[in-house]
Specification:
By secondary structure, the protein is α+β, with helices and mostly antiparallel strands. It has eleven helices and nine strands.
Length: 310
C-alpha cells in the first residue's frame, strides 16, 4: 500500500513548506526552493518494495540542494535511481551534470552533495541499499550523474519494472511478493550498471575484485567459505584479496555475511524458514542472538517480525 501526500488540501501559502517537509522526511534531507509562479501543486506516493523504496512524484518547477551540512542531519548513505516518466530535470553531482527527460534514468548518491532542478509530471525516485548494490556492481558509486543509456542491455527493462513496482498493490498478492520484486530490481540494476560501464577501461585489479565478488555471490552459503578459500580460488594471497575489497569500501567476509543475511531475510519472508533459529542455522549463523542483532542492524527490524507478517 502506498502512502500518499498532496498539497491540494493545504492553504496555498503553506503548500511549498508542506511539500518540502514531506519530501525530506520520506526521501533525503535537502534545501529546497520553488521556481514556478503561482500556487504549488505537488503529489507524492511512497511505497516499500522489499529492500527498495519508490517515491513517485509530480510537481511544478523547483530546486533541491543537498550540501555537506545535510549529510549530518540523518545517516542517509543509500544510492538512488531517478526515472523520469514525463517532465524534465537536471541533476549535478561530482562535477557531472545529467539532463533528464521522459524515459531518462540517472544514478545519484545520498552520501555526497548534489543539486537538482526539476519539473516532473511524473518521476520515480528509487532508494537502493548501498551495500547490497555494491555487492552486485562494485563500481556503482563511480557512475553517479551519468545518464544511463536506454539502448544498453536491461536498461529499458529496469525502467519498465520500476514503473510497474510503483503501481502494483502488493498487499493483494502472496506474502513475500514485494520482497522478491525488490530483490529483482536490485539484481537488475546491478546488471544494468555492469553493461553501462566501459569494460575496456577497467584496471586489472578492479576486474579481480569483480571476479572475486562473483565467486562470493555464488558460494556464500558454503560452510567452508573464508578469506583463504577466496584467495586460493583466484591464485592470489589473502592480503591481495583484502586490499582489493578494501578499495571498494568493504571486506570479503563482510560481503559473505551480508549475503547470508539477505538470503535469510528472503527465506523468512517467503515462508521457507519456519523460525528465526532455522533461518539462522540454515544461513551459516551458529548463534541466534548474534544473528538477530546482525539482522536488526542490517534491516532495521527484528527477524521474528517477518514471521508475524506471513
Amino acid at each position: 500500500m502506498a502512502i500518499e501526500y498532496s498539497t491540494a488540501a493545504v492553504a496555498p501559502v503553506h503548500r511549498f513548506d508542506y511539500w518540502s517537509d514531506v519530501v525530506c522526511r520520506h526521501c533525503i534531507p535537502a534545501a529546497s526552493r520553488m521556481l514556478a509562479e503561482g500556487p504549488f501543486d505537488g503529489a507524492l506516493a511512497v511505497r516499500h518494495v522489499g529492500v527498495v523504496d519508490i517515491a513517485t512524484m509530480a510537481a511544478p518547477l523547483h530546486h533541491w540542494s543537498r550540501e555537506s551540512g545535510h549529510l549530518r542531519i540523518r545517516d542517509d548513505d543509500d544510492l538512488w535511481i531517478a526515472c523520469m516518466r514525463a517532465g524534465e530535470g537536471v541533476l549535478e553531482q561530482g562535477g557531472r551534470q545529467a539532463r533528464l527527460r521522459a524515459h531518462g534514468m540517472v544514478l545519484y548518491d545520498a552520501a555526497r552533495p548534489f543539486q537538482c532542478t526539476m519539473a516532473p509530471q511524473a518521476i520515480d525516485l528509487c532508494r537502493f541499499p548501498r551495500r547490497a548494490l555494491l555487492q552486485r556492481y562494485p563500481g556503482a558509486e563511480r557512475m553517479t550523474a551519468l545518464l544511463l543509456d536506454d539502448g544498453k542491455p536491461a536498461a529499458a527493462q529496469l525502467r519498465a519494472l520500476i514503473a510497474q513496482a510503483a503501481d502494483i498493490d502488493f498487499d493483494g498478492l502472496r506474502p513475500g511478493a514485494a520482497e522478491r520484486f525488490g530483490s529483482t530490481l536490485l539484481d537488475l540494476l546491478g546488471l544494468v550498471l555492469e553493461f553501462q560501464a566501459d569494460v575496456q577501461e577497467r584496471p586489472a585489479e578492479r576486474d579481480l575484485h569483480a571476479r572475486m565478488s562473483a565467486y562470493v555471490q555464488r558460494y556464500f552459503l558454503e560452510p567452508g567459505l573464508c578469506l583463504q578459500t577466496i584467495a586460493d580460488a583466484h591464485h592470489v594471497s589473502t592480503r591481495t584479496v583484502t586490499r582489493a575489497f578494501a578499495r571498494h569500501g568493504h571486506t570479503p567476509m563482510g560481503m559473505v555475511w551480508q549475503l547470508r543475511l539477505q538470503a535469510s531475510r528472503q527465506a523468512l519472508a517467503e515462508g521457507r524458514a519456519r523460525s528465526v533459529t532455522e533461518a539462522a542455522f540454515d544461513h551459516g549463523f551458529s548463534d541466534v542472538s548474534h544473528y538477530s542483532r546482525a539482522f536488526r542492524k542490517a534491516f532495521g527490524s527484528a527477524p521474528h517480525l517477518l514471521l508475524r507478517s506471513r
